[in-house]
């Protein structure tokens, strides 16, 4: 009971931060379609650079984030991450005024940089402040905060950025260049006020986090039980085979999650579904993820171990991907949305399974796992390239080997190298 009280306040504070993660991250699904129109991009592959610019920051900043945390500690590191995100949000203002796609990508990279620092600190923090065997339950609670924010963000931004966009796109075809530029400038300006508000909120949260009652975990507080003998004999974080396999698993999972949430609108559009309807598809993916997190909270570890939950989710990923490729129209779209359920428990399970037993290397291991989030930058681009020759629907086949590898990690990989 006293243990629960000891991490109740940190859980609330970190929950607020995960809400912020979700709000900023899941806007990307709307931004992909919005920026393709506003910046007059030629292909879906170009528009998927939105996810690349955002998630590549995790790879670039993963190890530097670990160094920063070693100097600042967790709490100051989280505050710094929020401040960096605020700067990235402000970049959207001149980007919208100039209607410059590269500047938008720059802003997304800066936001991703701040998030990389936040994720490197917050995910191990949630794992550390309670028993490792129930870490997936705590991360599932964080996931509910994250995906609830994603649903709210998708609703708000689809209404702001994509309202009446079908009429606008149809009208652009018959406009002269001057009138067309005026309309597109007005479309681009829709995000200026929202991102100014986001920047202000992030700055306030940075100050609030810095002066909050969030306890800072010292190096000696980090878990070494179960690894005191094994981990102490290691000289490098790369000497843990289960961690290496966990990094690959995280890369593949995040790529699949981003594809299910961020490509579904453009996929619906490719099926000739109007954007007035397709703009809500990301919300469907997030709703399924939310459902999965709720199940995870009640089922882990009482009824399911973290590894078994991950295996079940991987099997669901194989099933829904297969159905998405084989079924027509809205049924196929529904199967892509249902991948949200398959992806839901993956992060809460992969992270603790991968860092379990690494002892003193936990910060570096966490940084490497955050770097693996770069899968969200790479896999959508692979999908964008494949759809040019295979078509939007068949290109989703690429997710099948990803889910099969995740299944391997859930059944055998997480035990690799352990006595």
TrEMBL record:
<dbReference type="InterPro" id="IPR036259">
    <property type="entry name" value="MFS_trans_sf"/>
</dbReference>
<feature type="transmembrane region" description="Helical">
    <location>
        <begin position="309"/>
        <end position="330"/>
    </location>
</feature>
<dbReference type="GO" id="GO:1904659">
    <property type="term" value="P:D-glucose transmembrane transport"/>
</dbReference>
<comment type="function">
    <text>Intake of glucose and galactose.</text>
</comment>
<feature type="transmembrane region" description="Helical">
    <location>
        <begin position="192"/>
        <end position="211"/>
    </location>
</feature>
<feature type="transmembrane region" description="Helical">
    <location>
        <begin position="336"/>
        <end position="355"/>
    </location>
</feature>
<keyword id="KW-1133">Transmembrane helix</keyword>
<feature type="transmembrane region" description="Helical">
    <location>
        <begin position="149"/>
        <end position="172"/>
    </location>
</feature>
<feature type="transmembrane region" description="Helical">
    <location>
        <begin position="77"/>
        <end position="97"/>
    </location>
</feature>
<feature type="domain" description="Major facilitator superfamily (MFS) profile">
    <location>
        <begin position="10"/>
        <end position="418"/>
    </location>
</feature>
<dbReference type="GO" id="GO:0005354">
    <property type="term" value="F:galactose transmembrane transporter activity"/>
</dbReference>
<dbReference type="InterPro" id="IPR005964">
    <property type="entry name" value="Glc/Gal_transptr_bac"/>
</dbReference>
<comment type="similarity">
    <text>Belongs to the major facilitator superfamily. FHS transporter (TC 2.A.1.7) family.</text>
</comment>
<feature type="transmembrane region" description="Helical">
    <location>
        <begin position="7"/>
        <end position="27"/>
    </location>
</feature>
<feature type="transmembrane region" description="Helical">
    <location>
        <begin position="103"/>
        <end position="128"/>
    </location>
</feature>
<feature type="transmembrane region" description="Helical">
    <location>
        <begin position="243"/>
        <end position="260"/>
    </location>
</feature>
<feature type="transmembrane region" description="Helical">
    <location>
        <begin position="395"/>
        <end position="411"/>
    </location>
</feature>
<feature type="transmembrane region" description="Helical">
    <location>
        <begin position="367"/>
        <end position="383"/>
    </location>
</feature>
<keyword id="KW-0472">Membrane</keyword>
<keyword id="KW-1003">Cell membrane</keyword>
<dbReference type="GO" id="GO:0055056">
    <property type="term" value="F:D-glucose transmembrane transporter activity"/>
</dbReference>
<dbReference type="GO" id="GO:0005886">
    <property type="term" value="C:plasma membrane"/>
</dbReference>
<protein>
    <submittedName>
        <fullName>Glucose/galactose MFS transporter</fullName>
    </submittedName>
</protein>
<keyword id="KW-0812">Transmembrane</keyword>
<feature type="transmembrane region" description="Helical">
    <location>
        <begin position="280"/>
        <end position="300"/>
    </location>
</feature>
<dbReference type="Pfam" id="PF07690">
    <property type="entry name" value="MFS_1"/>
</dbReference>
<dbReference type="InterPro" id="IPR050375">
    <property type="entry name" value="MFS_TsgA-like"/>
</dbReference>
<dbReference type="InterPro" id="IPR011701">
    <property type="entry name" value="MFS"/>
</dbReference>
<dbReference type="InterPro" id="IPR020846">
    <property type="entry name" value="MFS_dom"/>
</dbReference>
<feature type="transmembrane region" description="Helical">
    <location>
        <begin position="47"/>
        <end position="70"/>
    </location>
</feature>
